Amino acid sequence: xxxxxxxxxxxxxxxxxxxxxxxxxxxxxxxxxxxxxxxxxxxxxxxxxxxxxxxxxxxxxxxxxxxxxxxxxxxxxxxxxxxxxxxxxxxxxxxxxxxxxxxxxxxxxxxxxxxxxxxxxxxxxxxxxxxxxxxxxxxxxxxxxxxxxxxxxx
Length: 154
Description:
The protein is built from 6 helices and 5 strands; from the N terminus they run αααβββββααα. It is α+β, with helices and mostly antiparallel strands and about 150 residues long. A hairpin with a 2-residue loop joins β1 and β2. The radius of gyration is 22 Å and the shape is elongated.
């Protein structure tokens, strides 16, 4: 990438600063290994999880209840424990255990995975070493940005 003028440099530093601020506010999430997430989902009975939040009744292989995502009087929220997913025929929302926790608790992916791991009694091994190095580099870039802006404008 070739930088042609000072405004491009300032824009790049602004983007870096914005990314640092988002990281500090907890908006940027760590990534989790797909295999670990899939293994975690396989250890949880989705009907047991959802029944912590929604009153479910068994109907054949499935469970049904009132949808927690929209108001209704007749149950249209179905949970298929065998296949590990839920679906509401009223509002159309559907997904797996992680998606349910994201939607119900209005949290991000990583927080939903952590909550699912707590429910399953599984300890997640999330390495913070790489994350800490990234944070240190971003703070360094933030300092450089401040110095550059101070040098140019003052």
